[in-house]
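Following up on my earlier thread - several people asked me to post the actual chain instead of describing it. Fair enough. Here it is, all 432 residues.
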Amino acid sequence: MLEGGEKGGEKQRRNGEEEEVVQGGERGGERQRRDGEEEEEDGEIFLDTSHFLKDTPSFSQPVENVTANVGSTASLTCVVEELGHYKVAWGYKGTGAVLTVGTRVITNNPRITVHRHHPTTWVLTITHTTLQDQGGYWCQVNTTPPRSTTGYLTVVEPPVLEGGDEEAVVHKGDTVNLTCRAHGTPTPTVRWIRDDHHTLTLAPGHSVGEVVGSGLVLEEVTPDSGGGYLCIATNGHPPSVSRRIHLIIHHPPELTAARAVVWAPLGSSTSLSCLYAAQPSPKVTWRRETSGGLFTLLPQHTFTITPHAHPPHTHNTTLHLTNLGPADFGLYTCTLVNHLGTAEARILLKGVRQQTSGAPALPTPTGTLLTLLALSMVWIAARCEFKTGVAMYDFKTGMARCDFKSGVERCDEWPDVILIRTGIYTCGVADY
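Reply from S.P.:
Thanks for posting it. Predicted structure:
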């Protein structure tokens, strides 16, 4: 009985254990299903894996590329979500060196720092950037395997020109080589222009608006070649820079009289002018011819020198004469001298008066004497009207025209008399 009872008890215990195991298994299966949230609907099994990805670091955006000028500060930003207990490191792709881990700087480079601006944002900063800093920088999280994203730092250098503004002195007819050297990243482009916006005369008969290159060659330069030349360097990264070279062409004086003959009434005032160009600046003198072919040097206060912006001349020297008397009429000479040569121009000053009552009894003008002076055109003309026609003399060309009803004739002699048909008629102009 005891034995059988014991066996029966054992069986009951075994049955109870089995039942407990089964029940436990069922409960375990329920726990597994709850943990895995495994459900079966219409023969399909859906598995929610979100709990596997929970707290897994990820990059919400790639590291953006950055461009910085030499000497400036560059910053690269890395945004990591769900970092958890992991750490963020920065490194340089060119050498593979780790620069920072977390907020700690590993490299010995004092220009590099790292900051956590936000729980998800890590910023690597490089100050006083150099061309050697250019390259890829990776942001890495120490997962297994590690996850990383890379941004690229481009370092540029705006153009820099060697040397400053300068002057270059050459002689007329020389060949000139102007040089302008620039550096930068990327390599700058250099172009040449004139600062007065005139064309560049590279050789006689060959002119262009601009020249690209570090060198500018000018062949057989003339005084017109003188002036400012600009070399301008650009590489797409402001600012552009320029350098000015002032080219000075040494040459002998080049001179011309504004008018070869000037007419003025007795007692009036007038001016005699010479236009010139010379380099270096010449010594200017004026003199008047006196009796016997001698000349009298005129005081310096009687004439002026002013700029003249009408090539090929650059200056104007003007002699001022007032209250003209008979001795003031005659031949005047302006003279220019520099160490390369001498130039002279002569101007004849003549007197003008109207016909007097004591003149021969000849047909008299119906009009009056007109003396026209146009400084911009530098010519004088006298016009006399007669009953038989019109006589005109152009003092610039030295030519007289006599216009009559019967046609046009050229007068051979002037200014004392004009030959008209078979008679002699004065025109109110005479020498003193």
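Helices lie at 2-36, 50-53. That should answer part of your original question.
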